[in-house]
Design brief:
Layout lengths: L2 E10 L7 E10 L2 E6 L7 E5 L3 E5 L1 E6 L22 H6 L5 H17 L2 E8 L5 H14 L2 E6 L11 H11 L8 E5 L9 H13 L3 E6 L9 H7 L7 E5 L5 H10 L2 E4 L1 H6 L7 H6 L5 E2 L11 H21 L11 H7 L2 H6 L17 E5 L11 H8 L5 E6 L2 E5 L2 E2 L4 H18 L12
Parallel strand pairs: 1-4, 1-5, 6-7, 7-8, 8-9, 9-10, 10-11, 11-12, 12-13
Antiparallel strand pairs: 1-2, 2-3, 5-14, 14-15, 15-16, 16-17
Helix pairs in contact: 2-3, 2-14, 11-13
Length: 448
Amino acid sequence: MSRILLKDGCVLSLDRKIGNFHRADVLIDGPTISAVGPDLRAGNAEVIDVTDSIVMPGFVDTHRHVWEGLFRNLGDRAPWGSSDPGALSRKIGPFYRPDDVYAGNLVGLLGALDAGITTVLDWSHIQVSPEHTEAALAAHRESAIRAVFAYGPPWWGNPEPTRADFVRSLAGTHFTTADQLLTLALAPPGPEFASIESTRADWELAREVGARISVHVGVGEQRPRGRLAEMSQAGLLGPDTTYVNCATLSDEEIELIADSGGSFALSAAAGMMMGYGMPPIQQLIDRQLSPALSVDAESNVPTDMFTQMRAVISIQHASLFDLKLAGKGGVPNLLTTRRVLEYATIEGARANGLGAITGSLTPGKQADLIVLSSDTPNIFPINDPIGAVVWGMDTSNVDSVFVAGRALKRDGELVGVDMARISDIAYSARDHVARSAGLEPPALEAAG
């Protein structure tokens, strides 16, 4: 891999020791960041002029059901309900062939890259067979995104009795080197969807193979109570676990997770639309806890992190302004744009177990970064670069994306991607699954 010098951009390192710069350079040496600062010299480097651009770490998504990407943008037409958050996956999942998993994963991962996401945790509860797993992993390798592959059993039928043996084999064959883009996690149903005995077995399996754990908790009103306390008493909670959604957790349950060193991942936009409950943003801030962010369900909400940042910061601001309007005193401080940008980058990397590898522009870390155009009419003049990213930008501003020093998007276009082919396989797979499930692809509503 060659050396690349990104020159004269506004650099948001999100490393508090390095700081941010109105004008600086970023030197990429192979897969890593070599230096950050003004007026860097780099012989034999390709120089890319990033004037009128913001250079920052790539966004990190901590929880996304990527395989559902074939059914994007259904919004309130998706068969979700507050009492049945798994309705869509159970409706369509049984009809996915391995080729459909490949198509859904590939279009979902490329969509993430196009939106400036350089790391995603793929919460993949479509693992019906080894062939389904191989197809999902093939899409990951083709996309070249950094990912945590969270292997999960399907939410329909009974898990295969040999699943644990397959996970052990998977860990020993596909996730064996420390420098690869893919790392392994487990995506078990969790204590609100399974027995404590089953949950214990899943947790022990994950720790046996050295995989992180990602689990839904605090999802809607129908969940059983007291399960997290039981897990804590059983010694199962730990810093290797990320808890997703968390909307209906009690204060005591939040404390249990915090005391264990676990991470929180908020799916604010999807969770509100799907009836999970109000995200516990202020409860976490009050405890000086820093959540990560996630897209969650591609079928319901936009698949970019600009949307997730704005959802979280807007909810927190609105809730505090409501307190002020009601005459309450001692109202907490407003969430800052700096903090919510950290939620979408370095805090996400930590929640994915990759905080030492990515999430900030720190020399020695992997060169996972994005270049955002700031000379477009939707965003200039720039008055506050961080505010511009959080409040003003969208996916149209994502000019370039690098993962491990490799350019996967340049000049607003994904590199080396045959879009006609991707479109063909996505529509073909979508139509097969929909019709097999007794659905017709949604028709456009009549205008007016």
